[in-house]
Queue: 4 jobs
Job 1
Amino acid sequence: MSFSSDEVNFLVYRYLQESGFVHSAYTFGIESHISQSNINGALVPPAALLSILQKGLQYTEAEISIGEDGTEQRMVESLSLIDAVMPDVVASRQNQINQQKQQIKTEVQDTNREEVVTSNNGVGTSDRGGDRNEMEVDEQQQGTGTGANASAVEIPASKATKLRGHESEVFICAWNPTTDLLASGSGDSTARIWDMSDNSQAPNQLILRHCIQKGGAEVPSNKDVTSLDWKCDGTLLATGSYDGYARIWTTEGRLATTLGQHKGPIFALKWNKCGNYILSAGVDKTTIIWDAESGECTQQFSFHCAPALDVDWQTNTSFASCSTDQCIHVCKLNVDKPIKSFQGHTNEVNAIKWDPQGNLLASCSDDMSLKIWSMKQDTWVHDLQAHSKEIYTIKWSPTGPGTHNPNMNLTLASASFDSTVRLWDVERGACIHTLTRHTEPVYSVAFSPDGKFLASGSFDKCVHIWSTQSGLLVHSYKGTGGIFEVCWNSRGDKVGASASDGSVFVLDLRKL
């Protein structure tokens, strides 16, 4: 086997991305000059590094288990990754295997005489068979008992449409706000628009290729599409990429405008409610307000001292941004300095979201805390600490005063690498429900348009749909890859999801 340092570096880089360490991946990629290698990332399958390591472990275990005579003895305990590279541990396991082989030879000789007795009394074989049947029944009963809830419905494959086309991880997806067009963005340097309006199992797809100018020609950028957002009237789609460009596309898949002012990857971008500005956050430590019609940079804000990770509009001209520098800034168009800054997190701030009325700002961080801020005070309103690992993202419910669901309380959902989702009563600063059915990090949560349900997606390959009132699991579906994103269509009867194995799928919740 031969391999280059570029190949090893690329697999480590990809592993960091797939594990959710996007910012660490970027730093590692810069220092190891990933962009200068000739590796086409779109051709490298998901989880490639883990696959190679797993095969290496299996080879080492086989090497230990097979004796000089060619016979094999199964290992009682599998090797860990660290054990496999420790010569003393490997030698010790080899000795244990040899001792087991010798012991088995002795036991076989002794047991031959016992089996003659057992077969004579006619009891032994049937007794063993009876024990095995009882154990299988117990396992089936246990599986039923530890399922979702008695009321939860496993979504059948007939109600799921798998969308095939992407050649790498699909990090993001979002429904058009007015029609059943689903957009997705991938590590294969494309975004795609899927037409789900006729409920076809093989819907039409438009491929939005992200290209750059090189040698006088347009070539694929080979960079991840990191973010996308639909204009509020559904007429245009904006995408952000690791190649440093933001782009605006029509619903027919035509590139309308290219926005090129950032000096590095774009991590997030959002349309304002009026649809005349786009806001973006970059690894170059800046945030930019773009004129959507002309594609010109209207104003660039350089207040962070580290990569900007997320942005969210408060009004049509003011917004908040967060960064790995642990700071949050609130800025306004045509104002040269932040109109407010919030400090209090002790690690990078992963996401920020304004509540539906723009009064409260929620933030989540690798410091495992969730904080609520108000423009009326300098310190946090609530410091919510209940998660035991990093909080990856947060979402406000579309409920409360000023929304289409004014008679329901405003709540906040948080998704964490501790495999749980939490629902919070922000007024009281209290956790209402802890949703614990996932078994791997949860990357995405999304409220249904009426606020009655919450969808969550995890790297355990499951999409769960919960009742926000009771906290009970209502529907569940297991896909084929770790889930990066979940989203609801405007009517609330379809859930889209994107996954690490390149799949995108749509769950049809009607008649369930």
Job 2
Amino acid sequence: MATPVDISPNKDGGVTKEIIKEGVGSELPSPGGTVIVHYTGTLLDGTKFDSSKDRNDPFQFELKKGTVIKAWDIGVATMKKGEVAILTCAPEYAYGETGSPPKIPPNSTLKFEIEMIDWKGEDLSPEKDGSIERYQIVQGKDPITPNEGALVNVHLTGVYNEKIFEDRDVQFTLGEGEDVGVIEGVEKALESFKQGEKSKLKIKSKYAFKKEGNSEFNIPPNATVEYTVELKSFEKGVNAWSLNNSERIEQAKIYKEKGTNYFKACRYNLATKMYKTVTSFLEYRKDFEEDLKTERENLILSAYLNLALCHLKMDRNVEAKDACNEALILSPQNEKALFRRGQAYLALASPEIAIKDFQEVLRVEPKNTAATKQIAICNNLIKKQLAKEKKLYANMFDKFAEEDKQKEEEKLREQPDVMCGALGEWGQEERPGGRDATAFEKENPNILMLNANGTDEFQNM
């Protein structure tokens, strides 16, 4: 059994650790990650006050987030996978002067036998679905983190299937990493990095190379990749809240110009980000002076119109429609907004709605030949839809009629055949007098000759 070691930050003996079973490997859990442990807690006299093992229910918590006693955040951070250790925790690193009644008295020194089962990285994904996990290697020094628009200097090492596919230094504006080949997952993660931090990132395909993969790096579709990222330095981006109205206008112009340049280069995703930033700088602040007020409204309107165009280019038709709706709130008879919303509805297979927008365009500008062409397209699609529906309904009615006919025939088949036996197959005992069948009756078995003697007295009937 190992000798207890003082692992308290101040070396004051407040937390000692005694390893009972060595762990495997060299990796340790990183701050912010979720650790999974079993534990048994006792007082110094051996009284057990809690045990996850007794409940057969491993305990999970986020490391270094202050959700457990100080001794745990300190001690568990030093444990490898599979390791079992005893932490002895002085009151100031446990429950202090108050204790935790009724089981833990005030000023109690506690012992915890802890088994490290496993851990997961810190979830940095926006949806908290584990699609971006961080494992810190070197903690950063400064509590400030980069924001969108910050100029960052990083070193990236990308690994797939244990092979390095990129290893480089790169400088870029956060939010525009796509322009220099930096995947979205790295950008999202960097928003939580501190200067000097080095971390391993596990990034699923939705924030990496998606369903397309990357042929240059030999990465297949829907692949999870790993990056080791070091944030060497950064310069904070401009925060909208720190600017006066005139400065907001100037920043919005800068982002609008960036968006236009990205659009011209067919970088529609980046252009979308820039136009959204324009609205974020101006949308929620409305106390502009008269001269700036008009400029603000024109910039926001332009941003929404351009957003709609970007979304149409990327076949994001619902988003395009929504952007047009925002533009039409600002300018209800805007020709471009009406036309682009009509295009969105048309792409969403709603020509009967789209045609109304194109007709409204012609009311605003009767010479708009593009709208006239779109109306013709809508009418053609509507006719095709009606013909298709008519054919569909006709087929349905024919089907129903055939089913009704089959049901009727089935009912008739279930009824007794009155021509069978009683009328249709005459036996000798059924003839008057029990006589033999005449030649006519043999040729016509379903007809009964009524005369008993077989004469022709009924021949004129």
Job 3
Amino acid sequence: MKRLTEEKTKLVLEKLTKYIGSNVKLLIDRSDGVYCFRERKGRVYYVSEKILSLASMVKPDRLASVGTCFGKFTKSGKFRLHITALYHIAPYAQHKIWLKPSAEQQFLYGHHISKSSLSRITENTPQYQGVVVFSTNDIPLGFGVAAKSTMDCKFADPIATVCFHQADIGEYIRSEDTLI
């Protein structure tokens, strides 16, 4: 596993900043140790330095992965966040959306969120801001991009899209072969 280049590190941190803002530094400097990002075959992994030192004893061709896969770089050079990063991102999310119980299944099938599906939204969420989607029981379901700001949501039609779907926990079943 190799270190990310400055350019790739910048792309990863920009994407994470879109969802968790300045809390990105809390991902790296944690109370239980120092964590870092490493790349292998275009995928970015989030791993503690302690585990990384242990993994260095394994031959690279025998190592499938180490840590949590946060995402991958596309062929065009962009960074795409995977659903496997959700449980690391959710506690630090600055902007959140809560879904009504009747709308959770539609989101988990990969559909966008309409206003009629919305239970709550964080105050002052700007348009096109990364948001983490929760159930009414505060269970993280996925993440997306706000299609409308909080103020625009108040006056939107019930069928208007308020959040664009990015990833959801249903992908564990739908895309289990490509996640790792």
Job 4
Amino acid sequence: MAAEPDIVLYDLACTKNVSFSPVVWRIRLMLNYKNIPYKTIFLEFPDIEPTLKELGLVPATSASGSKYTVPAIQHVPTNTYIMDSLPIAQFLETTYPSPPVPLTSGLGLEIETKARGVLGKAIYSSVMPREIHILSPRSQEYFRRTREASIGHRLEDLLDDDKEKQVWDGVSDAMAAVGELMLTHKADGPFVLGAQPSYTDFFISGSLQSTRVIDEGVFQRMIRYPGYGEIYEACLPYMERRN
């Protein structure tokens, strides 16, 4: 009989039966890199809140209200439940310190902050409206209803070729600048800080892997910029387990 895993990872389900959420990938990469035994429970969009609420987790609060999100984990040895990627990463680093994954650095913070602004626009225009195509019918209905209520129009309206091109043209220089930051320590190794990966590497590669699962064309568009493909390739050994 297989040993019970240390971690139960709650992830977002898709029809490809692999992990595709960028925020869950950050944690999956840490688990894989640290070789922590875990199992995955995939949840459909409409099942996230009732499942996590039943587990006793407290919803995250933000300006838009309270909500339940993945990733969430159960640490089996202590029966501890944690939700959201950063608190989970902090717990994993404290509980499983070897090999270490630096969670913060000046360079990493700069990259993550700038990438959120730049990639956010590209993902909004090119990735988010295509995500619906890898969801089950139940999740498609939930995703369309909630996203279209937020943006005020149909998802397909974002995929106008001219509008999409304008978005990419508008972020091109900024994406290149963020990519150059990723290569700051390239003389010391393939990762943001040099020879060993950090949480920032998992932030970048997780976002890229999410994009790749949703749409290969958008992924290829992103890795044309310097830095992105290099970080992704360096993290590939920690992406072998995807479910």
